[in-house]
């Protein structure tokens, strides 16, 4: 299939992180949805040719057209505890259940879901188990991986769980783990991956899931790779800063005073430079970040908009344009939204560069073969 003929729908579209990745790949976004008014304003302004429906997806799921690729950075909602004994929970009535209904109805060849890191560990793994279980029940072959934006040329420590589903039959191959990753695991593990009969029933896992894995027909195999930290060149925060930032982004005098109650630490944690730390909890002092590492995870919550940075001898918060650059969006992508709302829109978004890597691997069949000649098909279907 040529990329130009591939169509996609973007659920929970926000400001179009998946959309930008798909545009770069020549994939046509034909339908998008989000409940948020500002996200709708930004999306409609930036991507005029796409049909964007604003509102609760649960009321508009019947409008989703046929498509080849479904993408969704869906909100994380707790599932009900019914069925806990079986190691999974009940997603009925949740937004995830709506995604499952749409996949069931539309049967796209591929999907890519994005969520927070915590998805792997919530409710002692039951939450993620429920997700894998439901998606494999639809007949998809799944692969998931925890990815970090800083490995995709962005100056941000942002870990996200990505799940991809493909309509292929079981083959011992994958998209999200490269040859380089598989070199870090033993031959014994490689051979185990190829033996579907030895995969673990999802319902029996009962703990946090590893950072990479495959799932099929209610069974999975997962590994936490030792190291994929330095695979991609890391941009640092100093590389994306704006020059001549005006004074409204500076710390207030009050804040400067409170800074005196902070502890100087000057260290790097998760590649983030920390210059001062809060002393004695949130009421005393401040955490102040430096610019020689990457930014901490940008979020959508208001208090974090005031994250404090020490930038070339000045104490200030980041600008909305710097937020856009840290996430890999065009500088003025959200210009129609009020200044302070832009932070939340960027903070909520998926970094296009990260999902570009994922979708490119799937669409352009960049497959890592685990063992090309293993008779797994026979083991499964024979
Ligand atoms: C994590 S954000 C996804 C952001 C998006 N991937 C991007 O790049 O901007 C989740 C989105 O789901 C939307 N949302 C939450 N509940 C919804 C619902 N019931 N129907 C449709 N969209 C919803 C929110 O408005 C938010 O934009």
The distinct bound ligands, ions and cofactors come out as: S-adenosylmethionine
The total tally of domains equals 2
Which homologous superfamily in CATH is the superfamily of the largest domain?
Answer: Vaccinia Virus protein VP39
- For the termini, the CA-CA separation is 30 Å
Describe, in plain words, how this protein is organized in 3D.
It is a single chain. With 382 residues, the chain is of the alpha/beta class. The protein folds into two domains: 259 residues, Vaccinia Virus protein VP39 (Rossmann fold, 3-Layer(aba) Sandwich), CATH 3.40.50.150; 112 residues, DNA Methylase, Chain A, domain 2 (Alpha-Beta Complex). Helices cover 26% and strands 21% of the residues. The strands form three sheets. It has a ten-stranded mixed sheet, sandwiched between helices. It starts with 6 loop residues before the first strand and ends with a helix. The C terminus is likely disordered. The chain binds S-adenosylmethionine. S-adenosylmethionine binds next to helix 1 and strand 2.
List keywords for this structure.
382 residues, alpha/beta, Rossmann fold, DNA Methylase, Chain A, domain 2, 2 domains, ten-stranded mixed beta sheet, five-stranded mixed beta sheet, 21% strand, disordered C terminus, binds S-adenosylmethionine
């Amino acid at each position: 299939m040529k990329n130009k003929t591939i169509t996609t729908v973007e659920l929970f579209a926000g400001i179009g992180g998946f959309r930008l990745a798909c545009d770069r790949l020549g994939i046509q976004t034909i339908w998008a949805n989000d409940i948020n008014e500002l996200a709708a304003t930004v999306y409609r302004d930036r991507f005029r040719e796409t049909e964007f429906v604003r509102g609760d997806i649960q009321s508009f799921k019947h409008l989703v057209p046929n498509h080849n690729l479904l993408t969704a950075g869906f909100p994380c909602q707790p599932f009900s505890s019914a069925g806990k004994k079986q190691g999974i929970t009940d997603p009925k009535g949740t937004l995830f259940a709506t995604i499952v209904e749409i996949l069931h109805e539309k049967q796209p060849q591929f999907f890519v879901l994005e969520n927070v890191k915590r998805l792997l560990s919530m409710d002692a793994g039951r939450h993620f188990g429920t997700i894998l279980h439901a998606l494999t029940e639809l007949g998809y072959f799944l692969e998931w991986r925890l990815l970090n934006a800083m490995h995709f040329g962005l100056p941000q420590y942002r870990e996200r769980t990505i799940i991809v589903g493909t309509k292929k039959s079981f083959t011992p191959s994958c998209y999200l783990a490269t040859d380089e990753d598989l070199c870090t695991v033993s031959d014994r593990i490689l051979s185990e991956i190829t033996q579907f009969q030895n995969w673990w029933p999802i319902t029996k896992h009962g703990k946090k899931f590893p950072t990479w894995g495959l799932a099929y027909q209610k069974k999975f195999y997962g590994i936490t790779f030792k190291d994929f930290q330095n695979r991609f060149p890391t941009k640092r925060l100093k590389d994306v800063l704006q020059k001549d930032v005006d004074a409204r982004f500076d710390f207030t005098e009050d804040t400067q005073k409170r800074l005196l109650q902070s502890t100087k630490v000057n260290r790097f944690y998760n590649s983030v430079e920390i210059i001062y730390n809060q002393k004695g909890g949130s009421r005393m002092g401040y955490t102040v970040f430096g610019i020689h590492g990457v930014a901490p995870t940008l979020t959508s919550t208001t208090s974090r908009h005031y994250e404090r940075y020490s930038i070339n001898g000045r104490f200030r918060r980041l600008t909305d344009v710097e937020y856009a650059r840290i996430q890999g969006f065009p500088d003025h992508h959200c210009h129609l939204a009020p200044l302070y709302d832009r932070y939340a829109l960027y903070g909520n978004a998926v970094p296009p560069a990260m999902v570009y890597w994922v979708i490119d691997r799937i669409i352009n069949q960049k497959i890592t073969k685990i063992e090309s000649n293993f008779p797994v098909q026979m083991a499964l279907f024979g």
